Write the structure tokens for this entry.
Amino acid sequence: AQKITQTQPGMFVQEKEAVTLDCTYDTSDPSYGLFWYKQPSSGEMIFLIYQGSYDQQNATEGRYSLNFQKARKSANLVISASQLGDSAMYFCAMRPTMDSSYKLIFGSGTRLLVRP
Amino acid sequence: EAQVTQNPRYLITVTGKKLTVTCSQNMNHEYMSWYRQDPGLGLRQIYYSMNVEVTDKGDVPEGYKVSRKEKRNFPLILESPSPNQTSLYFCASSLFGQSHNEQFFGPGTRLTVL
């Protein structure tokens, strides 16, 4: 079964510290994409970062980096130097290339609260 | 500005009263999709469309209909809404074909069915 698991329903982090949000995935497809989205309290879905299953290097986008460990089937999001505006819900998602629906498979999300 | 728009943003209705949520994108994307978001379940795909006049069921299609008569529009239709369709709905669009293609999401429609 194709599945994304986010085991941390909620997390706290102190402002300016780094935080890691966990994501593990399950797929039999040899080719897939992994995405992280941020959902602030206003509700919109904001794309953060993408990692391809054949990418040799971990993806980075500003303060966001993706710790991709293919053998462990994990794709953890690392946010460096947390800011108050990082408080939001974070979703990990996967798109198996062979899935004809081209859909994103989402995890249940992790709510991050940044403390001042 | 490249965007996906949805209307209405908020809707409270009663059981059985037909409603339509509109979705429009201005990026000339072939692929469009509807998701619903429920607490603890993340987002789940309802229907998707690969191009004009090509639509197919996602993971949770029961109680919904869609149409794709124009490339930019992909309305979601609830013929006879029920309380279990109370949810946050997102329309998304993307180019089709590559695994790295980002899906652009609309702002969401919060639907309550009484």
Remarks:
- The interface with chain B takes residues 4, 31-33, 35, 37, 43-45, 47, 50, 52-53, 91, 93, 95, 97, 101-104, 106-109 of chain A (CB under 8 Å).
